[in-house]
Amino acid sequence: MNPQTLLLVCGVLIGVIALIGAAAKLFQVSGWRAQSRPGRTLILRESIALDPRRRIHLVQCGQRQVVLLTGGGQDLVVGWMQDP
Length: 84
Fold this sequence. Notes:
Helix content is 33%, strand content 32%. With 84 residues, the chain is α+β, with helices and mostly antiparallel strands. It folds into two domains: 1-33; 42-80. A four-stranded antiparallel beta sheet has the order 1-2-3-4, with no helix packed on it. The chain is elongated and about 65 Å long. The N and C termini lie far apart (67 Å).
């Protein structure tokens, strides 16, 4: 690879990184957020590491909450929480 090609590649890479940074800043300043569908929610309420591989999550799905165990040999739904 000759020095001219190397400079061109570096310049293009810097330009792409600058464009990505500018777009991210524009989205952050404008307060742009992805629109969620009305009536459908999926929210991670809590997450706790049990060990280096496994985690337990409390996820809200609509008006209900479910406990999930992830990271072992397979993911597992521990159970749905009772309504308060």
